[in-house]
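step: validate -> pass
step: tokenize input -> pass
step: predict -> running
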Amino acid sequence: MFDCVLPTRIARHGALMTSEGRLNIRDKKNEYDLRPIDDKCDCYTCKNGYSRSYLRHLYKCDEGYGKRLMSIHNLRFLVRLMEEARKAIQEDRFGDFKNEFFEKYGLNTVNPRGF
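step: predict -> pass
step: emit ->
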């Protein structure tokens, strides 16, 4: 994960990682959605008013700026995920943390595969 193209590759294809699971920006439901990608996110994209609707528009127009904004979000998501994982380890609750994450992303806890 740390030496990988995952966050930028999936952003280029319209996939965003959120605290509630994967979000596909291409979905029609995002066309008029003025919310940020993730209300719980502190990344540049979410904190500066870039809505799902606007990002979908940029994606549909094949505008590189939209892909950059989505990549910024995905990268921050992964950094925050590792911060939360470290905290869960320190608090001796990593198993529960992992299971909650896998459930949100529809992953199998025995053989996880996502994105």
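step: describe -> The mean pLDDT is 92.
step: cleanup -> pass
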